[in-house]
Fold this sequence. Notes:
alpha+beta
Amino acid sequence: MAKENFVEQIADIEADFPRWYTDVVVKTGLVDYGPVKGTMVIRPYGYAIWENIQSELDKRFKATGHQNAYFPLLIPMSFFTKEAEHVEGFAPEVAVVTHAGGEELAEPLAIRPTSETVFGSMYSKWIQSYRDLPVLINQWANVMRWEKTTRPFLRTSEFLWQEGHTAHSSEEEALDETMKMLGVYKEFAENCLAIPVICGRKTEKEKFAGAVATFGMEAMMKDGKSLQAGTSHYLGQNFAKAFDIKYLDKDGVQKYVYTSSWGVSTRLIGALIMAHGDNRGLNLPPVVAPVQVVIIPIAAKKGGVLEACAELKQKLVKEGVRVTLDDGEQSPGWKFNEWEMKGVPLRIELGPRDIENGKAMIFRRDTLEKTEYDLKNIEITVKDLLATVQKDMLEAARVRRDNRIAYADDINGILQGVEKGNFVKAGWCGSRECEDKVKAETAATARVFAEGETSCKCAVCGKKSAHTVIFARAY
């Protein structure tokens, strides 16, 4: 009995985007719900995407001089009280351990929501001299933030991420690090995830708790909402003073270091789904797709077909292509739907007639186009096609986003724009009152400043504008 075709059970993306998203993440085998409310089990297919994301980012971090380390999951609660803004910002999300080994702990322990405090405590021990700087450390870890409303990958109580924490001798160097890593994220998002992003500074309201300045990477999803896909924070000397991170400079004077932190998480998998998916399911860019090519035998029981498919698979494996040969008993049509739902970039169909003619049919998941190619040197053809798919997916997403960037002169214009699923550029005077009013009346928030643009007037109060801001509804 053929396995159920899950594609028919995915909600319509235009009619019910949230339901479509939930259907896709569950029915493509990316995740399942954990036994504790708000947690997720990342299944092998979903974890394989994360491994590819991790691999691509990790080599970029190391190329920019960073080293990986690992810091404890449990953090003394007293650490959080050392930086007032930080503890206030994270207090509602912190999960606390009060008992262990059958006894009440002398001091409650936080399960890390982020690690600035524990990094700070260790840096205060390790950094003594200007010769110890800069310190460039990243860790791959899990964190816990006790969320009230959850959705797989986008917002869960526990998730996976990387967090870089660096210490520098000067403000200039720490700011350079902050912006450099934002640039690393942008290049990765566009060249690996095929997601165009808008980077810029966050408002004071939206910045990270304890930072001097936060810079965000915003990506447009297919429903027009924004997803904060990554952040890079300039922390100044806030955590250095809280944790007494000093060094003896060349001039013989004790000075506080300047620090930065930056991170992305498994939320990026949610971004992939919502930026590229369609009514058939996932649509994965080749760089991070667990399976880049699937080979489907046609009339598999006829002599020579499976052998030819296996030979083709080995050619592709030798070229470094992640390829699967689906020689299961289901019909080719069922397999087509199954692998399209899983978002595999290329499908190769090979049957007796194809083999006789020295041809193969290749289907592109991104455009849904099927084209006949010569079997001779097909491994080179496939590699070229994968590169083309990667490039074309980015360009399609860029065009889609750019066509949905609107401008507004007043708050009604912001409302109309976000109702249509747009990012809206509008002037802002810089006051918290006007920023709050936009959120209250439109459900949109200030995502980032539109760099290099200054509108004439604030869209809310009409006073002279200090910035042009990108407003959007967001996940």
